[in-house]
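Hi everyone, sorry if this is the wrong subforum. Our group has a chain we'd like a structural model of before ordering constructs, and none of us has done structure prediction before. Sequence below.
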Amino acid sequence: MAYDFSPQDLTGKVVVITGGTTGIGRATAHRLVAAGAHVLIFGRQEKELNDALESIREAGFGEARGLTADTAKPEDVKRVFDQAEAEFGGVDILVSNAALAAEGVQEMSPDAWRRVVDVNLSGYIAFCQEAVQRMKAKGRGQIVNVGSMSAKVREKGSSVYVATKAGIEGFTEALRKEVNELGIRVSLIEPGLVGTDMTASKVPPEEQPKKQEEGQMLKAEDIAECIYYTLIQPERCDVVLVQIRPHGQAI
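Answer:
Right subforum, don't worry. Here is the predicted structure as C-alpha cells:
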C-alpha cells in the first residue's frame, strides 16, 4: 500500500490575518507568505503596519499587503474583505487573532472592559460572519480562531480576558457545526503563555528570552507554525482544537 503524505499547498491562497502587525499575527504572516500564500494584514497603528510589511519584504520570501483597520468597527470589517477582493480576488482563509490584554473586572472601567469585549469577542464574531458570507459562495474556506488557554485555566485577576477567550471557545465550536455543511473548516488554537508585546505586562520583553529558553514561555513563531500545520491538512481533515503551552507551564 502506498501512502500519500502530501500536505495541502497554500501557494496562491488568499489569507486575511486580523492583528497581523504584531506578535502571533505578524509571525503567522511571515510563515504563510513563506509558504506562498497571498496575505493581507491589518492593525490599528500605521507605524506597526509599515514595520510588519517591511519585515516580510526583508525576509525575502515575498510580500504581504496591508491596511489600517479596527476589528471593533463594523465598517472596517467589510473594508478589510473588500481590500482582499481588490488585491487578490477573494479570500480563502481567515486567521482571527487580534486581541487586547485585560485585567480583572475590578481593575477596569466600564469603557475599558467594553472595548476589550468589542475587540476580543465581537470582532471575532464579525470577521467570521463576513468570511462565511464570502466563502460559502465558493463552497470552501478555512477559519482559524486564535484563543487562549486562559479559557481553561481561568486565572485570578483576568476575569475580563477570560470571559472573552471562553466566549471564543464556545463560539468557534458552535460555528464549526454551523458551517461544516458549507464546506468551511473551522479550527481553534489555544496557546499558553507566549512572548509577545501583549504579554509584556506579565513578563518584561528583556526577560522573555530566558523564559523561552527555560520552557516557561512560547515564541510567537511556535503558534505560527501550529497555524500553518492546521492549514495544510487535507480538506478531508478538520483540526478542531489545538492546545499548545510551554513545557514548563503545568497548569
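For your construct planning: The helical segments are 23-34, 46-59, 74-88, 110-135, 150-153, 159-179, 208-213, 220-231. The chain has one domain: 14-244.
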